[in-house]
Backbone:
């Protein structure tokens, strides 16, 4: 591949913003990628900042999901247990606790799915 600006020079990389081939004279290293010198530098720096902010948000989201899984799962177990003990003793009015426990279990399941999603996103971002 040749440089977009200097057709006689070989490109050493591609600009992270405009995807043009760049020779060493046209390229500038901005940390996590290269950019067109003077043209795309600020855009690539902003893009790298945005990617890092998203990675941090994904890690926080995974942490929140893991806490929610524990809380919802524990509440589902306790509430369903109380409801089940009451039903076994003949208190039919405690049936609603079983439904609340099932709802808590449903919320825990949704958080497990979100946690898996966040974990996959985080593992993909670590590779890049």
Residues:
């Amino acid at each position: 591949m040749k440089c977009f600006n200097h057709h006689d020079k070989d490109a050493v990389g591609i600009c992270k913003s405009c995807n043009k081939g760049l020779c060493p004279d046209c390229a500038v290293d901005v940390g996590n990628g290269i950019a067109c010198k003077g043209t795309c530098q600020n855009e690539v720096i902003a893009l790298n900042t945005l990617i890092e902010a998203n990675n941090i948000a994904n890690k926080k989201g995974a942490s929140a999901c893991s806490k929610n899984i524990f809380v919802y799962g524990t509440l589902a177990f306790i509430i369903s247990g109380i409801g089940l003990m009451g039903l076994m003793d003949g208190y039919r009015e405690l049936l609603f606790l079983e439904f609340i426990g099932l709802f808590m279990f449903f919320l825990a399941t949704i958080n497990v799915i979100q946690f898996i999603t966040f974990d996959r996103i985080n593992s993909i971002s670590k590779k890049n």
User: Anything to note?
Assistant: The chain has two domains: 1-40, 48-127. The mean pLDDT is 87. Residues 48-127 form one domain.
